[in-house]
Structures are given as C-alpha cells and as structure tokens.
C-alpha cells in the first residue's frame, strides 16, 4: 500500500513539473493577450518585422498581419507571446 501511495505522489509531482514546463513554453491561457487591431488601418500593414505567436500556433510577421487574419476569417486568435512560436 505504501508503494502505491509513493508511486502516486511521484506521478503527481511529475505531472506538475510537466505542466509547468508546457506553461513556460507556450504561456498560460490567462496570459494570452488580445491584439489591438483598432490601431491598424486595414487592409495593408507596415512591413516591420516584429513577430508574434498566435494562439493558432502560427507565427505572424507582426501584430497587424495577425489582425488581418482575424478580420479575414473571423477567427478569435490571441497573442501567446512576442516572438516566433
């Protein structure tokens, strides 16, 4: 019985560490941010390269191009992090 309890504790610790690793890599859902699409006059975006990682796991060259994708397809894509996915 003690062996089973010890195994469960180790399994829970491993699952916690794995979840923390995934959250550090991809960000937590509560930390996703909504792009500020109102600041861009679409269609047409600046050509600056300032990549963002979308919640669809695609890397966009900048926030404006993510906003274009949102408006074209009526997608609800959030920004997971600044930089590539």
TrEMBL record:
User: Which SMART domains does this entry report, sorted A to Z?
Assistant: KAZAL
GO molecular-function terms, A-Z = serine-type endopeptidase inhibitor activity
Know the name of this protein?
A: Serine protease inhibitor Kazal-type 1
The UniProt entry's GO CC annotations, sorted and at most eight, read: acrosomal vesicle; extracellular region; neuron projection
Outline what the protein does.
Answer: Serine protease inhibitor which exhibits anti-trypsin activity. In the pancreas, protects against trypsin-catalyzed premature activation of zymogens.
Give the source species: Rhinolophus ferrumequinum (Greater horseshoe bat)
Q: Which residues form the signal peptide?
A: 1-20
Gene designation per UniProt:
SPINK2
Query: Where is it localised?
Result: Secreted
Gene3D superfamilies noted in UniProt = 3.30.60.30
Q: Which GO terms describe its biological process?
A: acrosome assembly; fertilization; male germ cell proliferation; positive regulation of apoptotic process; seminiferous tubule development
Which residue range or ranges hold the Kazal-like domain? 31-85
Keyword entries, A-Z:
Disulfide bond, Protease inhibitor, Secreted, Serine protease inhibitor, Signal
Entry superkingdom: Eukaryota
Record-linked PROSITE patterns: KAZAL_1, KAZAL_2
